[in-house]
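name: query_chain
kind: protein
chains: 1
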Amino acid sequence: MSDSEPIKIDIWSDVACPWCYIGKRKLENGLEEYAQSADALPVEIEYHSFELSPDTPVDFEGSTTDYLAARKGMPVAQVEQMLDRVTGIASSVGLDYDFDAVKHTNTVKAHQLIHYAKARGKQLEAKERLLKAYFVDGQHVGRVGDLADLAAEIGLDRDDVVRSLEADEYLADVHADQRQAVAYGIQGVPFFVIDGKYGVSGAQAAAAFVQVLSQVAGDRREVGA
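structure:
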């Protein structure tokens, strides 16, 4: 591999994953820092589908607290304490989480939209818009109409998005991502695969990404020497 080729970062994540949005920001901060080094290589990012709760109904009745208390069997007070902690960590990277407004839903259609956007060069914009819609804006990201509205905001053809989602055009791609996650042994997200060989699990600090990217660049230079 050429030492000037972009470093590929493949990211498995879910739209309904608070740590995935936090991890996205920490990665972006790390990329910004890494780019300042004199020998920094370009970086290319691709998102892959992972459903944390594929059995979640499209229209879940209840709050985030209700959902987690029921799903994890935790006392309500403990859930509220956990959400407060996550909100604080999100705030530290500039994200204003509003768990009271979150509309729990099945994310398979959202993942299909991200694939649709990828095919049109707008995957990163779609991922960011969906995460913000879910965690910050309290918007619904499980229904075709709502997803089409969000897609239109980033310049995609609303009517064509409806067509694609109703036909499950990219469902096979979502399932392919999920099979790859199983093959890699990924059990939680976010999970970052860097240059096809380094795995980084969880919402790590920006410095961790800088370290791995610098390692990859160093490996390439050694091979090319």
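note: The chain has a mean pLDDT of 95.
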